[in-house]
Amino acid sequence: MTRQLTLLTLILTICLTSCGQNKTETKNKEHQQNVYTADTSVVAILPFDTTQYWVFKDSKPTDLTNDDLQKIETILNKCISHYNPDQERQFKEINDKHPEYKLDKKNFTIHLTRYKRQYVAVINSKGEKEVWVNCFCRTHNSNWKKERVVVKDGGNCYFNLKINLTTVQYYELMVNGDA
What we know:
Helix content: 25-40%
Low-confidence stretches: 5-33
Radius of gyration: 25 Å
Number of helices: 2
Order of helices and strands: HEEHEEEE
Number of strands: 6
Mean pLDDT: 84
Distance between the termini: 92 Å
Structural class: alpha+beta
Strand content: 15-25%
């Protein structure tokens, strides 16, 4: 009887221990799904520098989840789909009037596949999550994954905007001009 009781205790201990491990493994898998998985060859998440008050006032740094990254992509695509039609019209008008200029449409429209991106995420004074998105198709700085890329002019190769992830809105789209 004692032998059976010992065996039963051992089996119950193993079952209870392995059940706890399965829960831990499930939690770890769930956590891994929320870990940043963006393409790091084109996206860098930079920390919020409180001395850069021009980006966001009265804000504190935060992290981005995979859901946030997907929202950024969706909102960014929406922004560009609103931006490009007017640029296509401008291209056509100028090109029709001055075919001798031999303009390139890509200097008017934005195609996100050409751009690297920097994200700076914050929680604003209203408790909303916002992201400053800095996009560029060229960089003279090989350290773009750690330092903010800032250029004057450069045309549509450089643009930035702010995205409010809580309200799912973009604002302050700024496309650089040509010198």
